[in-house]
C-alpha cells in the first residue's frame, strides 16, 4: 500500500481512502493507534482525523470535494473499534443536498483517443523536480480549500468543522492537544475539571497539510501544551509532538511542549488518567525533554 500512495499523489489522483486505524504488527493486535496512517505522512496524502461517527460521515463528503479540488489523495482516519465497531446515532444528509454540495466530477484529464495524454510515463530529473514542487505548492493551498469547503458544508448541513478546534482555552494555563476519539474524553475532562485545573483542549482534525497558523493562534496566551499522541516514532517519540514543536520553533512561540504517549494498542485513556497527567505536568517542573508514558 505504501508505494501506491506515493503513486496516487504523484499521478494526482483524487482518491478518497477511509483508513480504520489499528496497531501495526508484530505482535498481532486489532487495537487502535495511529501509526498506520501517520507512517504515510510523507506520501502526499491529505489526512483528516475523526472524533465521532458523525465526523467520519461528514468528513468523507468533505474529502471528496477537497480531493477533486486539489487533485490530491485524501485519507479519512477513524479509530479502530472505537468508531469502526461501535454504534451511535448520526444525521444522514438528504441526498438532494449532498448532490448540490458534491456535484458529479468532470475530470480534466482522461483517457480519450481524440485528446491523448501520457499517464505514468518516464520523465527527466528536471520534470520530476518540478512535479514534486507542484505537489508541495498545491498542498500549501489545500488548507485554504479545506476551510472554504467546510464553510460550504456548514451552509448546507449546519455542522461546522475546522482544521484546529480550541475548546474552553480562554484564561487557561495548559492545553491538552489531541486528535481522534481521545478528544471526546479530553473534552469531558475539561468540562468537569478544566476550571479548577486551569486546562483547556485543542483538537487537531487536519494533519496534512499541517495547520501551522491555526495552531499557533489556538496556543496564544497558554503557558504549556500537553500533546497526547496515540502513536510512536521509536527513537523520537510522539509524531504530533514533533510537528507541533517544529511549528512553535518556526514562529518563535516559547511555549513548552510536553509529550505524552497514551492509548496505544487500544488501551483506554480515562478521565482519571488525564487528571493524573495534568497533575504531573503541574508539579513536575521541566518535562519538555522527556516523554510521559500514560499508565506507566
Report on this model:
This protein is an alpha/beta fold. The chain folds into 2 domains: 2-157, Rossmann fold (3-Layer(aba) Sandwich); 164-293, Rossmann fold (3-Layer(aba) Sandwich). The protein contains 9 helices and 10 strands. It has helices at 2-10, 35-38, 53-70, 95-101, 125-157, 182-197, 212-219, 239-251, 271-283, and strands spanning 16-21, 46-49, 74-79, 164-167, 174-178, 199-204, 206-208, 224-229, 257-261, 291-293. The chain has a 6-stranded mixed β-sheet with strand order 4-6-5-8-9-10, sandwiched between helices. The chain is globular and about 70 Å long.
Characteristics:
single chain; 296 residues; alpha/beta; Rossmann fold; 6-stranded mixed beta sheet; 4-stranded mixed beta sheet; 10 strands; globular
Brief sketch in words of this structure:
By secondary structure, this protein is α/β, with parallel strands linked by helices.
Distance between the termini: 34 Å
Structural class: alpha/beta
Which term fits the overall shape?
globular
- Unreliable runs: none
What is the element string, with H for helices and E for strands? HEHEHEHHEEHEEHEHEHE
Describe the main β-sheet briefly. 6 strands, mixed
User: Which percent bin holds the helix content?
Assistant: 40-55%
CATH class of the largest domain: Alpha Beta
The CATH homologous superfamily of the largest domain: Thiamin diphosphate (ThDP)-binding fold, Pyr/PP domains
Annotated CATH topology of the largest domain? Rossmann fold
In DSSP terms (H or I, runs of 4 or more residues), the helix count works out at 9
- Strand tally, please? 10
The gyration radius over C-alpha positions equals 20 Å
| Beta-strand residue percentage | 15-25%
Number of domains: 2
Strand order of the largest sheet: 4-6-5-8-9-10
Mean of all residue-level pLDDT scores: 95
If classified by CATH, what would the architecture of the largest domain be?
3-Layer(aba) Sandwich
Amino acid at each position: 500500500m505504501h508505494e501506491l500512495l506515493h503513486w496516487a499523489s504523484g499521478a494526482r489522483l483524487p482518491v478518497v481512502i477511509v483508513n480504520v486505524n489499528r496497531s501495526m504488527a508484530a505482535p498481532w493486535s486489532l487495537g487502535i493507534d495511529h501509526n498506520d496512517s501517520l507512517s504515510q505522512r510523507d506520501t502526499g496524502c491529505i489526512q483528516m482525523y475523526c472524533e465521532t461517527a458523525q465526523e467520519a460521515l461528514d468528513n468523507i463528503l468533505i474529502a471528496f470535494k477537497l480531493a477533486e479540488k486539489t487533485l490530491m489523495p485524501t485519507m479519512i482516519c477513524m479509530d479502530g473499534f472505537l468508531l469502526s465497531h461501535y454504534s451511535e446515532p448520526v444525521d444522514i444528509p438528504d441526498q438532494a443536498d449532498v448532490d448540490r454540495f458534491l456535484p458529479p466530477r468532470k475530470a480534466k484529464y482522461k483517457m480519450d483517443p481524440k485528446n491523448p495524454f501520457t499517464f505514468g510515463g518516464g520523465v527527466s530529473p528536471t520534470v520530476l523536480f518540478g512535479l514534486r514542487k507542484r505537489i508541495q505548492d498545491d498542498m500549501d493551498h489545500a488548507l485554504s480549500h479545506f476551510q472554504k469547503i467546510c464553510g460550504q458544508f456548514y451552509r448546507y448541513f449546519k455542522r461546522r468543522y475546522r482544521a484546529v478546534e480550541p475548546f474552553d482555552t480562554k484564561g487557561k494555563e495548559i492545553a491538552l492537544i489531541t486528535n481522534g476519539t481521545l478528544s471526546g474524553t479530553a473534552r469531558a475532562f475539561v468540562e468537569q475539571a478544566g476550571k479548577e485545573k486551569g486546562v483547556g483542549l485543542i483538537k487537531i482534525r487536519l494533519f496534512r497539510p499541517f495547520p501551522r497558523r491555526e495552531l499557533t493562534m489556538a496556543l496564544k496566551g497558554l503557558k504549556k501544551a500537553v500533546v497526547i499522541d496515540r502513536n510512536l516514532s521509536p527513537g523520537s517519540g510522539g509524531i504530533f509532538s514533533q510537528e507541533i514543536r517544529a511549528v512553535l520553533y518556526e514562529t518563535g512561540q516559547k511555549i513548552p511542549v510536553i509529550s505524552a504517549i497514551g492509548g496505544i494498542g487500544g488501551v483506554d485513556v480515562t478521565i482519571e488518567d488525564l487528571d493524573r497527567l495534568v497533575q504531573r505536568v503541574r508539579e513536575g517542573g521541566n518535562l519538555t525533554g522527556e516523554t510521559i508514558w500514560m499508565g506507566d
